[in-house]
Design goal:
2 copies of one chain form a homodimer. Chain A has about 425 residues and is of the alpha/beta class. Chain A has 13 helices and 17 strands. In chain A, the strands form 4 sheets. A 6-stranded mixed sheet of chain A has the order 2-1-3-8-7-6, with helices on both faces. A 5-stranded mixed sheet of chain A has the order 14-13-15-16-17, sandwiched between helices. Chain A has a 4-stranded antiparallel sheet with strand order 10-11-9-12. In chain A, strand 6 and strand 7 form a beta hairpin. The mean pLDDT of chain A is about 90. Chains A and B meet through helix 2, strand 2, helix 3, helix 7 and strand 10 of A and helix 1, helix 2, strand 2, helix 3 and helix 10 of B. Strand 14 (about 310-320) of chain A pairs antiparallel with strand 14 (about 310-320) of chain B, so a sheet runs across the interface.
């Protein structure tokens, strides 16, 4: 079964509102095992809305329509539905009463146009409104099938307000769709987050496995580039029930982890800082930072989640060179250098009273510094009786250089803590 | 002129990524006075991508296509463009060389499939890649016009990575579109950014002016709530040419500034940190920070723009209480207090060798600390021979408390520097 999404509203086309509804609906459809090949945004223009609905009905068996159900002149989804169904709109007195009662209960006067929301195309069934004033609609429509015989397709109309839409989708639309699709399967997904290889490198590591899975068709893999969040590999598995599907996912995760090794730093919502935090926490180690070009980003990320006080001591953001010399004890000289990064890490560990010192210094750009190009970054790490440094040459503008420096530093620390286990 | 947007990528349909690109592009088109009636999302399927391009070309004179230009098998936008144009793809050696050089400069091995990004449909012109590896494309295409005579339409292909897309749109696509559209009216907008009043308070200050403008119809005002970026008032003006339109905007800005006073901290992209930076810079003053619950956010924001080294000395992120006592000289006692904030500001100014010390300490949550509720925050400021503190009770979760603390601290400093002028 195929189901398209049509989001209605000129404000969406003008970029005044980002259409998060279609994304949310797309995700629900995927999890329900229903294919969705197109999503369309159309403005508040009747002819264009009608053409968008008709096109979606040609290509798919079901259409979810979001928005345009409100009381104002701009809200013409109901009229367009009636036109596509070839029927009239009729005022539903029971809905009109509910709308009047809602205003009365809130002690607010009701503008007459609110009753437009009680107009229903003949033949449509109603999805009772529980949060907003407008009910949703389930509109069956007969459409010529491939052999010319008419077949029944369906349009669902839900409000554009996200929490109203989501409640109606879960209560009425998705159950109705599942019933119509006859899809018995459970679909689940899991995302492995990686850092340290390119998209093409990742594709090469997994090429053999992808070919195997392509033949089998289940589970499937998808790559997602996520900028400074690294590259993600999403596993989607389909099974007759939840337990079997979870087993499929778990098995595939095992296979991929073997192929990818320790470039996998987390699963689903686990960020790099969460990975580092849990390694430090498990080892009872405290961390002190010395930052330069990142200006505090590294500390900000590490303290984004609660519980950081167990292992985070603080950060010396030594933006001015004299602060590096005076506060961190970096020897005078070029501050964009491996030697400076090492001294900063040692200095941070000392003045912040931490077990581990992590430092980052470099050139964010746009201008060069100490004769070094923008994107030149040194990471320093002091742990136990060793220090190590990394020289990086990072692409992109100032923001990206700072972001990449941050995650690169965290990844260096992550590997060092993992090696400690291995060693 | 009409221009549609087609976003390519199965991950968009599956809801793994929210399509913010189309919204951004829609906003740019509106500002350029170009109509956009439909936006479509389509997955990585060649036949469906081709049908989406063809449909958009039937309905509109131009199509902006976003995504699917990467190196992997999923990236088939180039193939689809060539099919719609009825031409071959030819490898462009110059682009291939640039891609090879990009990998070489980063010291990373290049998988051979990266060179797919150098394939160009015959007849297309190239938008040079400056941030990512894939160039953009401008693809003219002859399409039957209303009277059967062929007319030239155009497809633009840009990468799906937002910052790469935006850079190419501004540098190449929008100028080309404006040229083709020959749009005679100039539409320009300017946004005033405010901090320190509620949305309803702002609406009251501007009520009279809004009534006046509603009658006149040009310029128009819109309010935009932007969370920690404050509330924005957007002026949109339309005129026969750029000079007249700019004069309209400037006049309206003057009227609004008189009504709003010093809650206006910036215009358009001027963030609070840029406002603070320019005040410090103009006065030749240097700043040192002491942060606790913000973990480095304040420093990170202040150093986001280049040029901070002229006035930013650094930050002591004293997350652990002992770091406050030992490094900043805060007297032992409760660290979530006005006294601690004041001592931190004085300590930061001293150890970082700055003219101004700004400090923030508080409870980000979710748990309370020192008997204080989450959201309790103290800001301290040390400047010349005075210190001042502010006690804040901020709403929201951990993220919002940290963000609001940051901007509140910056706004305190901004007012103090402005008072210095007045005094």
């Amino acid at each position: 079964m195929r189901c398209e999404v049509v989001a209605v509203g000129t404000e969406l086309l003008l970029g005044q509102i980002v259409d998060t509804n279609s994304s949310w609906i797309g995700e629900q459809l995927a999890l329900a095992g229903i294919d969705s090949h197109f999503q369309t945004k159309v403005g508040d223009n009747r002819a264009r809305i009608v053409s968008a609905f008709r096109l979606a009905l040609e290509r798919s068996e079901a259409v979810i329509i979001c928005g345009g159900l409100g009381p104002t002149q701009d809200d013409i989804t109901r009229d367009a539905l009636a036109e596509v169904m070839g029927v009239e709109l009729v005022r539903d007195d029971a809905i009109a009463d509910v709308i009047r009662q809602m205003f009365a209960a809130r002690g607010r006067p009701m503008a007459e146009n609110n009753l437009n929301q009680a107009d229903v195309p003949v033949g449509a069934s109603i999805i009772e409104q529980r949060r907003g004033t407008a009910p949703g609609l389930i509109c069956p429509v007969m459409v010529p099938g491939p052999d010319g015989e008419p077949i029944e397709k369906v349009m669902y109309a839900v409000p554009g307000v996200p929490h109203e839409m989501q409640e109606m989708m879960e209560r009425a639309v998705l159950p109705d769709l599942r019933l119509r699709s006859g899809e018995p399967a459970t679909i689940l997904s899991r995302t492995l987050r990686t850092w340290g290889d390119s998209e093409s490198g990742l594709a090469e590591r997994l090429a053999g496995r992808i070919t195997e899975l392509d033949e089998r068709g289940n589970p499937t893999l998808a790559f997602l580039a996520s900028g400074i969040e690294g590259l993600k590999v999403r596993i989607t598995a389909k099974g007759p029930d939840e337990i079997t599907t979870r087993e499929l996912l778990a098995h595939e995760e095992g296979v991929l982890r073997t192929l990818l090794g320790d470039i996998v730093f987390g699963v689903d919502d686990e960020t790099m800082e969460i990975a580092v935090a849990s390694l430090l926490d498990a080892r009872g180690l405290t961390l002190g930072l010395a930052e330069s070009l990142t200006g505090g980003l590294l500390g900000a990320r590490l303290t984004a989640a609660p519980g950081a006080s167990a292992w985070f001591r603080g950060s010396v953001v030594s933006y001015a060179s004299e602060v590096k010399f005076d506060l961190l004890g970096v020897p005078e000289g070029p501050v964009v250098s491996a030697a400076a990064a090492e001294a900063m890490a040692l200095g941070a560990r000392k003045v912040l009273g931490a077990d581990v010192g992590l430092a980052v210094t470099g050139v964010a750009g746009p201008a060069e510094q100490d004769g070094q190009e923008p994107g030149t970054v040194f990471v320093g790490l002091a742990f136990e009786d060793t220090t190590e440094t990394r020289e990086l040459h990072l692409p992109g503008d100032r923001d990206r250089v700072r972001d990449f420096s941050t995650i690169s530093a965290l990844d260096l620390l992550r590997h060092r803590l993992l090696e400690q286990d291995a060693g």
